[in-house]
Structure prediction request, 215 residues.
Amino acid sequence: MYFWHTYYKFLALFSLKNPCVTFCHYICHTLIPGYKLDFETFDIKLDTEYTGRNFIYLEEIDSTNTFLLSQQDLKHGTVAFAENQTNGRGRLDRKWISQPGVNLLFSIFLNPSEIDVKKIQLYNLATSLSIAFSIENLLQIPTNLKWPNDVLIGKKKVSGILLESSSLGEKFNKIVVGVGVNVNQPYFQGKYLTEPTSLKLESKQLVSREKLFAE
Prediction:
């Protein structure tokens, strides 16, 4: 497990270039209930054979994909989850921007020896379908898929998937599937190729990240 201590967060208020943003981050982590994923609730509801059975919780990381690709001796199905990503990305190296503590940002490690690597791109589609079905099952909100890696509600993007790999010689030695789901984000700033939305905006209610994650 990887955790920041409150003490160091407090010290960071005086050292980073943007103390206002850091202070908000500090307040969220220490004073707002429910900011951190309730792992116990997630674990109880999880019903998988191997995905998520080995779970790495990160309060902040540059990218969960990059993190898993840098690790050694991971178990097939290992999940790395982050409350915040400082360098999240999507296809074509586009930035994935997410507010801390309100969405689902995670990556799944796939051991090439455990899967059919000739059908690797199908895992992208399978992940998109899984996210779409989870949203529909939990919230009864219709979804659409935009090939190859987006989940939409109407014409708005609620989730994106990014499959990445590393090779040793001519063979894959690591494969990760990165997932971002806009769950409880209340607003989105900036310009986007596809207008974003969140499950909270679409359902008009706070959505349990733990229940959705376990779906």
In short: Helices lie at 6-12, 19-31, 39-45, 64-70, 120-139, 199-203, 209-214. DSSP finds seven helices and seven strands in the chain.
